[in-house]
Design goal:
Structural class: mainly alpha
Number of helices: 4
Largest sheet: none
CATH class of the largest domain: Mainly Alpha
Shape: elongated
CATH architecture of the largest domain: Up-down Bundle
Distance between the termini: 39 Å
Mean pLDDT: 83
CATH topology of the largest domain: Methane Monooxygenase Hydroxylase, Chain G, domain 1
Oligomer: single chain
Helix content: over 70%
Low-confidence stretches: none
Radius of gyration: 23 Å
CATH superfamily of the largest domain: t-snare proteins
Amino acid sequence: MSSDFESYEQDFAVLTAEITGRIGKVPKLVGDEKKQMIANVEKQLEEARELLEQMELEVREIPPQSRGMYSSRMRSYKQEMGKLEADFKRSRIAYSDEVRNELLGDDGNSSENQRAHLLDNTERLERSSRRLEAGYQIAVETEQIGQEMLENLSHDREKIQRARERV
């Protein structure tokens, strides 16, 4: 079961990376290309939501003693999904501002360009922070698994030594 979960995890990671890249491209595109990119991102966000649902179903199937680790991963994935949706919403707002400016004949000034650059930089920082948080969580989970394995090996060693002494 956990192999299915891990497969979904990999698909989710690839999909969120693609979404992140496309969200970053939206403000730089114009016209039909921008509309098409927005439609693609919306489609991919829906796929990511479906993957999260599948992952939740897999977590429910996992034995209770192992479920905690997977539950914490799910929380971080849900947070990442929420941040992706917020980033996409911001890029769409920037898109609608551009459309409004085009319709009104406003060419935009340097302060709007600076604002757009600041938003882009903020988004990049947030994505980097999310990646660091996810990496930290994986490291903590790996450490916990390692400790459990060492404890199990220690108990097994004691059993083997007692069996040798009896023989």
